[in-house]
Fold:
Amino acid sequence: MTAKANIDYNMPEIFANRPWQNQVTISLLSGSPLYQLDMNRRFGHIRKGLSQPELDDFVLESTVQTIQSKKPNLMLVHFTDLDTQRHHYGFSSKQAQAALRRHDNRLGRIIHALKQSGIYENSTIIALGDHSALDESMAIKINVILRRKGLIDVNKRGKITDWKAYCKSCDGSAYLYVKNINDEETKSILQKIIHDLSRDKSNGIEQVLTKKELRTMGADSNAYLMVEALQGYYFTEGLNGDFIDSIITEDVNSKKYTVASHGYSPNKHNYTTVLLASGKGIRSNAIIPSMQLVDEGPTLAKLLGLDLGDTDGKVIQELLEI
Ligand SMILES: [Zn+2]
Structure:
């Protein structure tokens, strides 16, 4: 999200995802080269590729060092330990609980660094999640059906050579794209496939959203349809085998599948995340029964004395002392 952004000390969370890229060059070119080289020289030994908790431990040491050496006016840090553990072991697993305890320790280290740097009294600390997760045990592969119906062509090596319609997974939900939006034949075939599938609950589809509906929800209006998974299911983009796979331990160990996902509709039950705020400008002991993710931007902007103008969300004034 912050790749190539105008940030003084930028270590963007970006992965090398093209055959000609590698992690070192993509990181250096997308962020601040000297800053990242410095952090890597100091703490690179902590990291083990992208695996957790080592990655967050590296991020924490970089955070502490940056607080001490730069005393930043605004610092944004993304920890993914909890998310990773939930994906691999489940929402309430002991591994997820351990990640929460590690996060608690990390927060303690950040508070300590702020105090040591003499900026704690003037700081506001906000800990927030961008999503929750839900346990699942079934993987839905709509592309298997699209391939069977001749809407996706695959060569001998299993690579897609051409497609008329494709299911792009967001895990808990999925987009259905039609390559040529004027291709009425493909649209009607796709419509029929999806409606037939959604009629039988054992196919794991809870809801089908039309182009118009997904636009109102703020989703990608380039998609033709969107599908929402029933709780316990999630979408993948697999092209082979059965339409639905029951997830077994082997699949999880090989990282083929996960046992908890996100990307579901925000209307799913028991699927909210958290926002904790403390320090300068924050009203003590205020409890906000519910708010939307889109309210965070304008609220935090107000805290910084900024106004984002016309936004989807609103300033949550009950949280603020200003
Ligand atoms: Zn995740």
